[in-house]
Amino acid sequence: MAETPPIPCVPRGLDKGGKALWRSVHAVFGFTGEPHLLAILEQACRTRDEIDRLEAAMERQPYTVLGSAKQVQVHPLVSEARFQRKALAELLSRIGLPDNGDPDDPHARHSAAGKKAARARWNRCY
Asked: What's the predicted TM-score (pTM) here?
């Protein structure tokens, strides 16, 4: 029976959401990344914390604000949160995790595994 490797220490400076992401990626997905992948995961955890801070800042803010020409526009925090969510999804996909974050989704697992296998196959040909 194969032992699961220990979860690496949580990087310093992470908040609640970042720590939870770090632990769950290792525990749920059995992530045993190389150092460069761990660095990407750390950045993803910091991005998760940034999203949490943006969402907390937006809680008491209106969804729309007046722009410089007195036009109604979406609050800038909404756009920034959307940008950070996209960045988080990209970081997680770079380390081969499913986009939807559900380890039980068979399509997501096969998709991530298929992408990894395809990269390995094509990289050998060149």
From this structure: 0.72
